[in-house]
């Protein structure tokens, strides 16, 4: 990648994109391809595609701590480690230092962040599902939160567009609650998953088990090959960055596409602190930046600004952009900015063992699981004692040598046993929708400062009774399905869920048709400051129960298309 | 040549007086230091040799090399030093002392001087003690529970061995880049488990 040093000196662009993750990468690609000169600002360091993934080709024995992290790193990344899986010897460098990047928690909030070019597109779970009208109509039908300003027909062509570009492998299932997309060939299921699917679908009319729809290439298109991307190699080391470019990330796909236009300038180490609002022009003129390394304060100007810094960070930037016109934050006439924090609640489900298929095994490491689309509170069904629903992610495997830790014994026969595949096990983990609550909020707290002297975010959000009631079904239904398929020792696990931990935090600058109740209009445009757009998860009006990134991409592409039309009409 | 090898060559070239942790980053410093100096970091030389022998009792050489060949003691030394809290390190070191005490009581020799049958006997005793400790801990608050020495040693041995090159490629079957996925195929007679 070329960092265009000469053009960094110039400070005026057609568009500024704040953030280089899933949404920012899409904004940069679309805007440059439509002819705009774009500056993409990233607060962290640059990570080059392939050569920057420093553990991608490391064998297990080349890690001195075999995956564990030294206590020094564990202390620096104590919040980032709350997931239990993000801070490993292979991946810790992709997660922020919590001591440099603190925040405050009135209630526990697990904020997982990756401050580098590509953002969390390098470490994301890659599960890619569409929202449908079941989701878009839920708020208005139930009188919860505000109505979505769009319906499925508005976003459906944009889902098509982004799926074709990023590459989503999956199976078409014809379900109203989980619309089909433009899929590359699906990944295979394990023997046990095929068995459980058959038994569950025989017994329960509305429960479907399908393969995860995942942003991995299984049959590259010419467009993907031209960007240097190849098919998934089934190593399942995605969190380290993919040297084959097999899964979608900024580095593998949107960044090279944007760079090809010759119109993108990428500036790492650029912490955007606020949007500059011009009261005479009634619009934004640029952004203020603190250089991460030199701490120099800089200004960059543009005709249009896309905030794609991640839900909480874009919300922070808006709240921190105060002026006489906007004393409570840019575009915050409604007072909803920072409210309605949502995330998915999870870490509840069931697992069990299966005594059959002892003579069956598998080849390769599938970087994907199975998916059980929502089957509760669908139209025409009897209502549960909670609103909305949940889906399951899960999968089967044969236990590995790790089972030796809970076996008695040692010596030759013990060792021999551990060199063989263990028993089949399978788990189902629910991901549930969280309702939008006004009182779940985030504010800027000036009493605490980060490494750069900037005030920090303060979180006050929790899951409430609707989510708690849903969790009973999430555990019981999973156990019921596994037992139906003949699994033994089925246990329900609910290990607790806190907002943020799903790494789907969203909703704090929601869109809507009514400027009195929303920050953004239906094109992700700030109602009261037309040349500022926000297309990361902050725009979400309800959470659905599916992984949200695909929706951020589709909405970003749609918003850029609108913004460029408006620019041409000189309406921004 | 990977990054660690490169660092070690530089370190060797410049002599071991160089401040190695400053040269290597946090993740690699200890491994480089042990490799260049040839000395254990947390363990004494005797403790290091003893851990190697105890690990070999847990995962002995059979048709494939055992824990000693995989240098599991080196990994345990580095992981204990870097990734464990001081009180857990101490419990491990105390466990080694205790092992020699019960070896002396039973056979009037330290563990490393015992024959294979005697070693197995001592390890069986340690296993039984650990089971008792775990049982007793069921009724105490979670923050007062700990992993008994025998289980610490066993977990670290399994981790060190099955993630080693010897363990992953000889005792198990390691394929770095599978290239395709087949979710349901026949298990061949004698087929080893995948390493990862």
Assign a percent range to the helix content of chain A: 10-25%
What do we call the CATH topology of the largest domain in chain A? FAD/NAD(P)-binding domain
- CATH top level label of the largest domain in chain A: Alpha Beta
Number of domains of chain B: 2
What is the number of E strands of chain B?
A: 1
What is the residue-averaged pLDDT of chain A?
Answer: 97
What's the overall geometry of chain A?
globular
Helical percent range of chain B? 55-70%
Distance between the termini of chain A: 31 Å
H/I helix tally of chain B: 9
Helix/strand-derived category of chain A reads: alpha/beta
| Helical stretch tally of chain A | 13
Gist?
The complex is a heterodimer of chains A (about 575) and B (about 200). Chain A has about 575 residues and is α/β, with parallel strands linked by helices.
Keywords:
heterodimer; A: 572 residues; alpha/beta; FAD/NAD(P)-binding domain; B: 196 residues; mainly alpha; 2 domains; 9 helices; 59% helix; globular
Give an overview in words.
Chain A is globular, with a radius of gyration of 23 Å. In chain A, helix 2 (22-33) packs parallel to helix 9 (250-260), helix 2 (22-33) runs parallel beside helix 13 and helix 6 crosses helix 13 (549-568). Chain A has 572 residues and is α/β, with parallel strands linked by helices. Chain A has helices spanning 5-9, 22-33, 71-76, 133-136, 138-142, 152-166, 191-203, 222-226, 250-260, 311-320, 412-418, 465-484, 549-568, and strands at residues 12-18, 38-41, 104-105, 168-169, 183-184, 210-211, 264-267, 270-278, 283-291, 297-307, 345-354, 360-363, 370-372, 390-398, 424-432, 441-449, 455-460, 488-494, 532-534. In chain A, the strands form 4 sheets. In chain A, strands 1, 2, 7, 8, 9, 10 and 19 form a 7-stranded mixed β-sheet that branches. In chain A, strands 6-13-14-15-11-18 form a 6-stranded antiparallel β-sheet, covered by helices on one side. Chain A has a 3-stranded mixed β-sheet with strand order 3-17-16, with helices on one face. The model of chain A has no long low-confidence stretch (mean pLDDT 97). Chain A starts with a helix and ends with a helix. Chain A folds into 2 domains: 5-126 and 248-340 and 439-461 and 506-568, FAD/NAD(P)-binding domain; 172-214 and 345-432 and 464-494. Chain B is mainly α and 196 residues long. Chain B folds into 2 domains: 1-37, no CATH class; 40-170, no CATH class. Chain B has 9 helices and 1 strand, in the order αααααααααβ. The model of chain B is unreliable at 14-24 (pLDDT under 50). The interface between A and B is large, with 60 and 58 residues.
């Amino acid at each position: 990648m070329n960092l265009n040093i000469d053009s960094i000196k110039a400070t005026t662009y057609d568009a500024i994109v704040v953030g280089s993750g899933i949404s920012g990468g899409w904004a940069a690609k679309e805007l440059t391809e439509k002819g705009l000169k774009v500056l993409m600002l990233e607060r962290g360091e640059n990570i080059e595609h392939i050569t920057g993934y420093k553990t991608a080709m490391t064998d297990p024995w080349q890690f001195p701590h075999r995956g564990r992290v030294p206590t020094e790193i564990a202390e620096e990344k104590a919040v980032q480690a709350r997931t239990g899986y993000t801070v490993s010897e292979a991946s810790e460098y992709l997660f922020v230092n919590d001591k440099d990047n603190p925040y405050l928690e009135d209630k526990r909030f697990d904020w997982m962040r990756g401050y580098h070019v590509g953002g969390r597109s390098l470490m994301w779970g890659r599960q890619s599902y569409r929202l449908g009208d079941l989701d878009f109509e839920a708020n208005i039908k139930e009188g919860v939160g505000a109505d979505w300003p769009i319906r499925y027909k508005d976003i459906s062509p944009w889902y098509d567009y982004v799926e074709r570009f990023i590459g989503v492998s999956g199976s078409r299932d014809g379900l109203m609650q989980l619309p089909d997309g433009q899929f590359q060939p699906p990944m295979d299921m394990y023997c046990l998953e095929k068995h459980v699917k058959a038994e569950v679908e025989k017994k329960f009319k509305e429960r479907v088990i399908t393969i995860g729809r995942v942003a991995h290439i299984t049959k590259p298109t010419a467009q993907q090959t031209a960007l240097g991307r190849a098919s998934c190699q089934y190593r399942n080391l995605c969190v380290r960055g993919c040297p084959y470019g097999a899964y979608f990330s900024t580095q593998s796909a949107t960044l090279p596409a944007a760079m090809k236009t010759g119109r993108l300038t990428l500036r790492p180490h650029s912490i955007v602190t606020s949007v500059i609002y011009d009261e005479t022009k009634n619009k934004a003129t640029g952004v203020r930046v603190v250089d991460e390394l030199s701490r120099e304060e800089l200004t960059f100007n543009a005709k249009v600004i896309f905030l794609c810094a991640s839900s909480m960070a874009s919300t922070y930037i808006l709240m921190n952009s105060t002026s006489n016109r906007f004393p409570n934050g840019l575009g915050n006439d409604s007072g909803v900015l920072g409210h309605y924090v949502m995330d998915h609640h999870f870490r509840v489900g069931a697992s069990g063992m299966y005594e059959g298929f002892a003579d069956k095994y598998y080849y390769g490491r599938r970087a994907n699981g199975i998916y059980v689309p929502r089957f509760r509170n669908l139209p025409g069904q009897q209502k549960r004692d909670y609103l909305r629903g949940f889906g399951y992610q899960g999968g089967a495997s044969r236990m590995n040598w790790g089972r030796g830790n809970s076996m008695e014994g040692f010596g030759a026969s013990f060792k021999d046993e551990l060199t063989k595949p263990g028993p089949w096990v399978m788990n189902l983990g629910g991901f549930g929708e969280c309702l939008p609550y006004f009182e779940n909020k985030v504010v800027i707290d000036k009493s605490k400062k980060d490494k750069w002297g900037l005030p920090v975010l303060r979180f006050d959000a929790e899951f409430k009774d609707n989510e708690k009631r849903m969790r009973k079904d999430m555990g019981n239904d999973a156990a019921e399905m596994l037992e139906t398929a003949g699994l033994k020792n089925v246990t329900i696990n609910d290990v607790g869920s806190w907002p943020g931990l799903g790494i789907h935090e969203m909703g704090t600058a929601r869109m809507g048709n009514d400027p009195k109740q929303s920050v953004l209009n239906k094109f992700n445009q700030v109602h009261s400051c037309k040349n500022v757009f926000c297309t990361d998860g902050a725009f979400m009006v309800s959470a659905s129960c599916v992984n949200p990134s695909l929706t951020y991409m589709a909405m970003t592409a749609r918003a850029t298309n609108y913004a460029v039309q408006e620019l041409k009409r000189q309406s921004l | 040549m990977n990054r660690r090898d490169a660092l070690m060559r530089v370190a060797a070239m410049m002599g071991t007086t160089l401040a190695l942790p400053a040269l290597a980053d946090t993740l690699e410093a200890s491994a480089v230091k042990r490799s260049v100096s040839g000395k254990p970091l947390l363990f004494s030389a005797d403790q290091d040799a003893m851990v190697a022998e105890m690990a070999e009792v847990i995962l002995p050489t059979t048709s494939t090399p055992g824990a000693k060949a995989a240098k599991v003691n080196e990994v345990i030394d580095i992981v204990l030093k870097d990734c464990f809290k001081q009180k857990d390190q101490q419990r491990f070191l105390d466990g080694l002392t205790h092992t020699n005490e019960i070896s002396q009581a039973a056979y009037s020799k330290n563990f490393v001087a015992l024959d294979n049958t005697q070693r197995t006997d001592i390890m069986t005793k340690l296993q039984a003690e650990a089971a008792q400790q775990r049982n007793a801990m069921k009724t105490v608050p979670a923050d007062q529970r700990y992993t008994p020495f025998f289980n610490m040693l066993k977990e670290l041995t399994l981790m060190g061995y099955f993630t080693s090159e010897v363990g992953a490629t000889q005792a198990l079957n390691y394929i770095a880049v599978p290239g395709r996925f087949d979710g349901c195929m026949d298990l061949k007679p004698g087929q080893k488990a995948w390493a990862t």
